[in-house]
Amino acid sequence: MNYERQQQNMSISLYCFHHAGGSASSYLPWKTDMGPDIQVCPVQLPGRGSLYNEDLIIDFGVLIERLSKIFLAENSLPFAFFGHSLGGLVAFELCHFLKRQSLPMPKHLFISGTNPPIFHPPSPRRPKDDESLIERLKAYEGTDEQIFKNKEFMEMVLPVFRADLMLIESYHYQSRQQLALPLTLLTGKSDEYLQHDRLSVWGLETSSDFEHYLFEGGHFYIQSRKNAVLQLIRQKLLNIPPSLE
């Protein structure tokens, strides 16, 4: 796994997990826009970006075990997790893995655009051919239209997206003791991939505080509403009253 190491002059590190078919680069603007005190650490999964030469992982358990190695080496600063879509599921399961291993736990868990894991999987199974896969990718509305016209780039993107869908299919929810950390859910009001009437079930996954914030937009509201999302994260992690941010 690739990630940015903690900087001691920061108050807290925020490890960010990307969506299916995505990469750590989706969080790079956050590094400058988040502001002082919070170090944004985008986590790069294998087979993309700087880890393009590594094998893609299609087994959820294997992925979580690999990711846990980050926190065997990095525990000097407090940290939090933010995960969007697939990344939300990854962040949630990584919390449980750290808990089972008695490793340091995040101070806060931010879940974005992700259905409660107990209802997984809510979406149709992955497309079998490239054309259907492209249509599925377009439907998420998180990819620039120009990218679909770049044949070479699509030849790199499609295997990653297909592998990530296989990764999601390999996930199996297990009923366990609740996490004991604050959990904040962020969703887009018009996200067609969420079961909106069931989102409150996320609150059953923690014995601590649970809050749900709605934003204008669809599945990738975090792009159009980035500033509002970062403001909320700062308020939660730095205990800043909303009126002072």
General description of the model:
The protein is an alpha/beta fold. It has one domain: Alpha/Beta hydrolase fold, catalytic domain (Rossmann fold), CATH 3.40.50. The chain is 33% helix and 14% strand. It is built from 7 helices and 6 strands. Strands 2-1-3-4-5-6 form a 6-stranded parallel β-sheet, with helices on both faces. Strand 3, helix 3 and strand 4 form a beta-alpha-beta unit. Helix 2 packs across helix 3.
Short description:
This protein is of the alpha/beta class.
Which short descriptors sum up this protein?
alpha/beta, Rossmann fold, 7 helices, 6 strands
Topology record:
Layout: E1 12-17, H1 28-33, E2 38-43, H2 60-73, E3 79-84, H3 86-100, E4 109-112, H4 130-139, H5 151-169, E5 183-188, E6 210-215, H6 221-224, H7 226-238
Parallel strand pairs: 1-2, 1-3, 3-4, 4-5, 5-6
The largest sheet has its strands arranged as: 2-1-3-4-5-6
- Under the CATH scheme, which architecture would be assigned? 3-Layer(aba) Sandwich
Radius of gyration: 17 Å
Form type: globular
**Number of helices, where a helix is a run of at least 4 consecutive DSSP H or I residues:** 7
Q: In terms of quaternary structure, what is this?
A: single chain
Query: What is the number of independent domains?
Result: 1
Report strand %: 5-15%
The biggest beta sheet is recorded as: 6 strands, parallel
Fraction of residues in helix: 25-40%
Number of strands: 6
Order of helices and strands: EHEHEHEHHEEHH
The name of the CATH topology is Rossmann fold
Report the CATH C-level class: Alpha Beta
How would you classify the helix and strand content by structural class?
alpha/beta
> pLDDT under 50 segments (min length 5)?
none
Roughly what is the average pLDDT, rounded to an integer?
86
First and last CA, distance: 34 Å
The CATH homologous superfamily: Alpha/Beta hydrolase fold, catalytic domain
